[in-house]
Amino acid sequence: MAGSSNFISPLKNFSVPLMIILISTVLSFLHRVECVEFDVGGKNGWATPSGKNNDQVYNDWASKNRFQVNDTLRFGYKKDSVLVVTEEEYEKCRSSHPIFFSNNGDTVFTLDRPGLFYFISGVAGHCQKGLKMIVKVLEPASPPQAANEHSSAALVFAAPEFIPMAVFVLISSFIGVIFV
């Protein structure tokens, strides 16, 4: 038994720095916010759909994705443009005062709020041929609200909040046992 404590005692010198690194790592994972960049239209990019029944190509693409606040949309195109417009302008396929305009061929747009964003092409006739899209950005997840003592539903939703802390306590207890 005396031999095992001699083996662990040199590790005591590293326990504080190791604990600081571990805590920093755990906290960085708990508070990390990930944003995703989406390539609009996939490999085809932002281009006028071919064919007569392809006027929903971009809305179909958007409906297959889940957009969060601060995600970005990358529009790749040639000889075209991207406009963010109101719902009314989207329906009419034209805008004299867009909320956002770009025609540089490689546009990155940040989804900066929850709700609907309306995109159209600024080139005459392209929007009417289906070069338009509605993107729905989801509301950010909010922490569970406090409930009265008799609400069992609040316990169901509050439990996941404590899981990271429980894991942290378990890991730190384990490390404490090793280095003591």
UniProtKB/TrEMBL annotation:
* Gene3D superfamilies, alphabetized: Cupredoxins - blue copper proteins
Q: Which Pfam families match?
A: Cu_bind_like
Which residue intervals define the domain Phytocyanin in the entry?
36-139
| Listed transmembrane segments | 162-179
The record lists the lineage as: Eukaryota, Viridiplantae, Streptophyta, Embryophyta, Tracheophyta
Q: Tell where it localizes.
A: Cell membrane
Recorded coiled-coil stretches: none
PANTHER family noted in UniProt: BLUE COPPER PROTEIN, EARLY NODULIN-LIKE PROTEIN 5-RELATED
Membrane topology according to the record: Lipid-anchor; GPI-anchor
Task: Determine if Signal is one of this entry's keywords.
Answer: yes
User: Which branch of life, at top level?
Assistant: Eukaryota
The name this protein carries in UniProt is Phytocyanin domain-containing protein
Quote the PROSITE patterns the UniProt record gives. PHYTOCYANIN (PS51485)
